[in-house]
Design goal:
The protein is α/β, with parallel strands linked by helices and 331 residues long. It has helices at 19-30, 62-71, 85-90, 92-113, 147-166, 192-202, 221-233, 254-262, 277-282, 291-297, 305-321; strands at 9-12, 35-39, 54-56, 76-79, 117-119, 122-123, 170-171, 173-175, 177-179, 206-208, 215-220, 245-246, 250-253, 270-272. It has two domains: 6-176 and 221-246, Rossmann fold (3-Layer(aba) Sandwich), CATH 3.40.50; 178-218 and 250-288 and 300-321, UDP-galactose 4-epimerase, domain 1, CATH 3.90.25. A six-stranded parallel β-sheet has the order 3-2-1-4-5-7, sandwiched between helices.
Length: 331
């Protein structure tokens, strides 16, 4: 199977940090009318320029999902809807229901309706005690310490189960922390790596909730979108893995991130005040081995820390000068 099998795409969680940018990319590639966005809330007014079909949907409502899939003749689902790590620790039952029940609904409907493809991202949150923290391999012990991580391990296993038992083409990749200049994050432990740029551009002191030496795998959004689309379009026969590809780009500490900003904004001020998210960050790897993704579907990132910081500061500075830094979000 290849890209010719992809005709009509549903993106769940389309208003999230990644989904909101992925929808635009997919609409450019496949045509605006062929990519249906869905989430719990409608897009903000200023986002309506991304013309294309939108459906309000709760992924835990299987009947509603089935109705959308049939009505829009969907053949491919990119399942981005999820409760992230920090919010998942505050509301663990909600995280399980959305992340696991939502995925089972999508996979069951893919089986029943004979969909061509399902992509459901996983996360470095699947890792925990017992796995190597440096260059974490593709296959290793998975003992996450967060509900988010537990749900993502379950999701990886579910995707592989539906591949093996029902022939559903389910695939996924373990996202590192994602940094975006376009969309604010939504409750993840790595949100500081986005928020820090906004504070720097506004000339504010940044209070970082992880320690200066906290080092985590990260990725700039353009690479995240590129990797997601590459895996979505990869030939099934080239894949030895399915629901759990490690994906890497760069790793840096909070202090190294601050220093990269100071090269452009020397007066930038940061203080480190670790909170409950420090324990979550400490349970994750500092770098991961993504050789399987590179070998099986040609993954290669384009951005390092320096290039990402330059582009982030350029984009945010322009918006700040125009009085629209937060793009509809309250400052």
């Amino acid at each position: 199977m290849g890209t010719t099998d992809i005709k009509r795409i549903l993106v769940t969680g389309s208003e999230g940090q990644i989904g909101s940018e992925l929808v635009g990319d997919l609409r450019e590639r496949y045509g605006a009318d062929n990519v249906v966005a869905s989430d719990l809330r409608a897009p903000a007014a200023e986002e309506e320029g991304q013309a294309g079909p939108f459906e309000i949907a709760d992924v835990t409502d299987r009947q509603r999902l089935a109705e959308i899939l049939r009505r829009h003749r969907i053949d491919t689902v990119v399942h981005m809807a999820a409760i992230l790590s920090a919010k998942g620790e505050r509301e663990p039952a909600l995280a399980w229901n959305v992340n696991v029940t939502g995925l089972i609904n999508v996979l069951e409907l893919a089986r029943e309706l004979d969909l061509n493809r399902v992509l459901c991202p996983s996360s470095i949150a699947v890792f925990g005690a017992g796995c190597p923290s440096e260059n974490t391999p593709q296959e290793t012990v998975l003992l996450p310490s967060t509900m988010y991580g537990i749900t993502k391990v379950a999701g990886e296993l579910l995707c592989d189960y539906y591949v093996d038992h029902f022939g559903v083409d389910a695939r996924g990749l373990r996202y590192p922390g994602i940094v975006s200049a376009e969309t604010l994050p939504g409750g993840g432990t790595t949100d500081y790596a986005v928020e820090i740029y906004y504070a720097a551009v506004e000339g504010k002191q940044f209070r970082c909730y992880v320690g200066e030496d906290t080092r985590l795998p990260m990725m700039y959004m353009p690479d995240c979108i590129k990797g997601t689309v590459q895996l979505l379009e990869a030939d099934f026969d080239s894949l030895e893995h399915h629901g759990n590809f490690n994906l890497a780009s760069m790793s840096f500490s909070a202090g190294e991130l601050a220093e990269s900003i100071r090269r452009r904004i020397p007066e930038f001020d940061i203080v480190y005040e670790p909170d409950y998210r420090q324990a979550i960050a400490d349970s994750w790897p500092s770098s991961i081995d993504d050789s399987a993704a590179r070998r099986e579907w040609g993954w290669s990132p384009s951005y390092d820390l320096g290039a990402m910081t330059e582009d982030m500061l350029d984009r945010l500075s322009r918006r700040h000068a125009e009085g629209r830094l937060y793009k509809g979000q309250p400052a």
